[in-house]
Write a structure and sequence with these properties.
Two copies of one chain form a homodimer. By secondary structure, chain A is of the alpha/beta class. Chain A has three domains: 281 residues, Spore Coat Polysaccharide Biosynthesis Protein SpsA, Chain A; 77 residues, no CATH class; 105 residues, Jelly Rolls (Sandwich). Chain A contains eleven helices and 30 strands. A six-stranded antiparallel β-sheet of chain A has the order 20-21-22-29-24-27, with no helix packed on it. β17 of chain A pairs parallel with β19 of chain B, so a sheet runs across the interface.
């Protein structure tokens, strides 16, 4: 992988710097229950130790400037932490105050880059796609960057491998070659007959939502095709606020049109280029595509976690909870996915209707529609183990050096038992250090704080009791993560 | 229901007493994950508040002697508690030291009854069957008891409603009437063609495993057809031991043949009678039969718990865990069942292969093959909420007046936090009372005891820490349930 990237540098004009712009604000529900609004698929560990977002970053780790990461307020700590784990600590994390689709997000990144480097080339990528052949990905990227350096707006089109009805297409003027070439137009998602025609014609590519251009070229394109957006986004950028590691766009951003980059720019320009990519791309946009990526055996059965199949075919069985064992018997064309708090069982061809399932649960007031039992916080995470009348048990992990806010609760008292690591606990004026197997009591109303002063993760069990146990019963007096 | 029982009394010769003999030692796995070896289907709540075992007892609650309940050592506290909840506190709970199938169990009950009442009539029933029409059940029972009072060995045969291949059949000498009549022979489970023939002939009934005869008739039948079993079981009964509420057969019982009552007696006798029963019987022996009993809607979809169906047909969706939401999309002829720790997804017609699934999990060392997260004990229950390296969190419920054994642990210390109710805690020489939201610490090695001195259930959270956290790290000094 590094060698391809090294080639990439050699192939490019050295005077241009290249900026990865990663769009990681998406909150898809099509992979529920594994992807949820509160923690969408780009952040979920996909291989044993990496999320799709991290795999996206790693594909661009050598020869590029520090990336610009666009996201929403809810995901900022996750983006920062996962980038850091990947070894990237210079990223600019640009926070959109509200989601306004891809056009204003890409414009904001272009304006930011042009402040210091108008000739800088942006490589704009979704954070939740897969490329099996990284060397082909890099080769295509290299061709795209070369065209962008000449002032072109470039999109990357995926060489289709099946008559897919779930993607948009890009029509080419002539048969595809490896380099940037003209395209005729963008085509909406087709029906199956049309998809077959396009596949056999050899003149269509899938629209991957990946782009490349210089910052100044893109700003000019917006000024031509979407002029009313420019002053709004420029103002949001000019009035931006730094907040810890984050750069917050000003709230005027919400006045921008809510529109996709394809629609605002790509479908409007007449001189765009497309570079074909045959990189084993997969948008992982449905359970069927996940099944395809999960190495099914000769019977078509793919399994993950503690899952077993007895005489199944073309079936995905996934237990995403280490404590849940799943067995499928005699299934055909089924996807079954279990987390600790939800189970989806669907006909593989109907897996796009998962959105309806999520809506059903949300309307019923079930929190697993949108949230996970485990909640990530800047200091670590917590997970509810049991919730009963007047009591709740949580497992809490605090990262080394991390501190929860100085806080108090009106309705609940808390018991803390340290199970591993060390805790520094402040209760009113008293500060003490607790080791493994030690405990403390936080009376109702006491001003308290929990810190991990050690070098290893702190795990503790919290038993809450009281008449009301909601997360919103919290008065914050001081917070190192600027959440007061 | 009570009125039918009243009729039953009127129809019978008053000189005979009638003893329900309920076989509740079965440990079927065909309804895994809801039924497990450690807590089989007869004890699982079937309606909102009653198990099949309890429904069986309630069908026989008026006009009968106190029942004789046959079970194994593992289920004794469950049998006692569920019988008590049903208002039966005079039952004889006869414990088989090892399972030896139905023949020796029925013989032991016959010998026990004949000690005081040789003419006593035994109504022998499985503990896990369903009868929708209790009045027809009682009418058939009444006819069977009348024949038993005349010295006959009676079995109850179910009027078949479909060409079922999963049951044994009983062939009649002539077309069935309502009263006891001769039968020709017992027939093994047939193939589908044979099942159709038997159904259309109108001369076959399903074998329900339910019987009726006097104690002395049955002892005579064993002496004729299975003579070597009688002295062994008689010795096991003579040397029985009383243990709290239980009567333990002596260990010589294990020398008895391991053989079914059908095979040992019913298939051998030439003068048996059968009484047809059209009581809406269901043996609940597979997920398909559970689906039939779960009131499917017009699309054939049956749901239980937090379960939803989007365009499914002939499908059972069951969440048996209050914290798990299940959604099915586009399913046909599927059963999906989730508990907190296991998920089964099966083709409805293959649900008899659930046994293979259980074997697969057992061989893999997964405890959910045979055990539940919640473990019932004579004093209440406990449930593991989280198990990590060197720690475990349990939720514990102690019934009013109940006491855990006086015990100590070699490898673990424990924290207890009371979340509701009151606890009396002994730690070495110290005894204290804890109320809601109070906690205590049990150091490693300390001799301790937990009691509920109150009038309401005690709920507490236990946090264990130590190098080894198995249930077998326990030294018992004293136990009111005779487990030392």
């Amino acid at each position: 992988m590094f060698s391809e990237l090294f080639h990439l540098e050699l192939d490019l004009p050295t005077k241009h710097r290249i900026y990865p712009v990663i769009l990681c604000g998406g909150s898809g529900t099509r992979l529920w229950p594994v992807s949820r609004r509160s923690y969408p698929k780009q952040f979920v560990p996909f291989t044993d130790d990496e999320s799709l977002f991290q795999m996206t970053l790693r594909r661009l780790e050598s020869g590029f400037e520090a990336p610009i990461l666009l996201t929403g307020n809810d995901f900022r700590f996750t983006v920062a932490e996962q980038a850091q784990q990947t070894g990237i600590d210079q990223a600019t994390i640009l926070i959109e105050p509200v989601a306004r689709n891809t056009a204003p997000a890409i414009l904001a990144a272009a304006l930011l880059i042009s402040e210091t480097d108008p000739d800088g080339i942006m490589v704009v990528l979704p954070s939740d796609h897969m490329h099996h052949d990284v060397s082909k990905f890099h080769a295509a990227l290299s061709n795209g960057i070369a065209a962008a350096a000449e002032g072109h707006v470039v999109t990357f089109g995926i060489t289709p491998t099946r008559p897919e009805t779930g993607f948009g297409y890009i029509e080419l003027a002539k048969a595809p070659s490896e380099v940037a070439q003209d395209f005729v137009r963008f085509v909406e998602k087709p029906d199956e007959e049309r998809a077959r025609e396009m596949l056999s014609s050899g003149r269509f590519l899938w629209n991957s939502g990946s782009f490349c251009f210089s910052a100044k070229t893109m700003i000019a394109a917006f000024e031509t095709h979407c002029p009313e957006m420019v002053p709004v986004v420029r103002r949001a950028l000019d009035d931006r606020v730094s907040d810890l590691d984050f750069t917050r766009l000003a709230s005027v951003y919400e006045e921008s049109q809510d529109i996709s980059f394809d629609y605002a720019i790509m479908e409007q320009i007449s001189d765009g280029k497309v570079v074909p990519m045959a990189s084993g791309w997969n948008d992982l946009g449905s359970w069927r595509t996940i099944w395809q990526e999960s190495r099914p055996d000769e019977a078509g059965v793919a399994r993950k976690g503690h899952a077993w199949a007895i005489d199944c075919q073309e079936t995905l069985l996934r237990s995403d909870d280490p404590d849940t064992a799943m067995v499928g018997i005699g299934l055909r064309n089924i996807v079954a996915v279990a987390t600790g708090d939800a189970v989806l069982v669907a006909d593989m061809d109907r897996s796009q209707e998962v959105r309806d399932a999520v809506a059903l649960l949300r309307d019923g007031g079930f929190k697993q529609a949108e949230e996970f039992a485990k909640c990530y916080r800047p200091w670590g995470w917590y997970e509810t183990l049991a919730l009963g009348e007047r009591f709740q048990v949580k497992r809490i992990m605090v990262k080394p050096g991390a501190k929860l806010s100085l806080q108090s609760h009106v309705h609940r008292a808390e018991h803390w038992v340290v199970v591993s690591g060390a805790a520094r606990v402040t209760v009113d004026d008293d500060v003490k250090l607790l080791g493994e197997n030690q405990s403390t009591y936080i009376p109702l109303g006491a001003v308290h704080r929990l810190e991990n002063p050690g070098k290893v993760d702190l795990h503790l069990i919290e038993v809450q009791s009281g008449a009301y146990l909601g997360e919103d019963d919290i008065v914050r007096y001081e917070d190192i993560y600027a959440r007061t």
